[in-house]
Amino acid sequence: MIRRVVESALRAKVDEVVVVLGWEAMRVREALAELQCYLVVNKDYQKGQSSSVKAGLREVAGRAEAILILPGDVAKIDPRSINMVVEEYNSRRSLILVAACAGRSGHPILLSKELFKEIEQIEEATFGLKAVVSRHESEVRMVETGSENVLRDVDTPKDLKLLK
């Protein structure tokens, strides 16, 4: 699943793909071995997704204009949907862009560098990125992709079965 997500990101119009490893890091590293992506190990992965977001941000903060967050369980994400978010950012430079389908928010989410300092402070206990997005709700722009792939993630065995 992670390989498919990374391959979609690599086919999209992004400058680089950084994959944050945590649980099962060696298996994921092996699955991505020949792909042209940067691997970052989050030794604090047990602290939740916020720690992984911060680990990835630390890798790119000095050179990135924005970051695109794409969880590894958004198994059917496609390059077209990713590109729609990137192209919208390139055209409007919005603070926060969220891929959507039929008005429902999904992934990826793009956050401008103006938010990096705030993102560095996120914690699971304070709702991580959701809190950042909530604080800037008036500046969030939905990017209608027309693809349900931006909404589908795999959280349970049932989700995985439906995916297949």
Please give a quick description of this structure.
The chain has helices at residues 2-11, 25-31, 49-60, 79-92, 116-119, 128-135, 157-163; strands spanning 18-21, 38-41, 66-69, 96-101, 104-112, 140-144. It contains seven helices and six strands; from the N terminus they run αβαβαβαββααβα.
- Give a count of the beta strands, DSSP E runs of length 2 or more: 6
Number of domains: 1
% residues in beta strands: 15-25%
Cα-to-Cα separation, first versus last residue: 11 Å
Description:
The protein has 164 residues and is α/β, with parallel strands linked by helices. It has a single domain, classed as Spore Coat Polysaccharide Biosynthesis Protein SpsA, Chain A (Alpha-Beta Complex). Helices cover 38% and strands 20% of the residues. The chain contains seven helices and six strands, in the order αβαβαβαββααβα. It has helices at residues 2-11, 25-31, 49-60, 79-92, 116-119, 128-135, 157-163; strands at residues 18-21, 38-41, 66-69, 96-101, 104-112, 140-144. The strands form two sheets. The protein has a four-stranded mixed sheet with strand order 3-5-4-6. It has a two-stranded parallel ribbon with strand order 1-2. Helix 2 (25-31) links the parallel strand 1 (18-21) and strand 2. The longest helix has 14 residues, at 79-92.
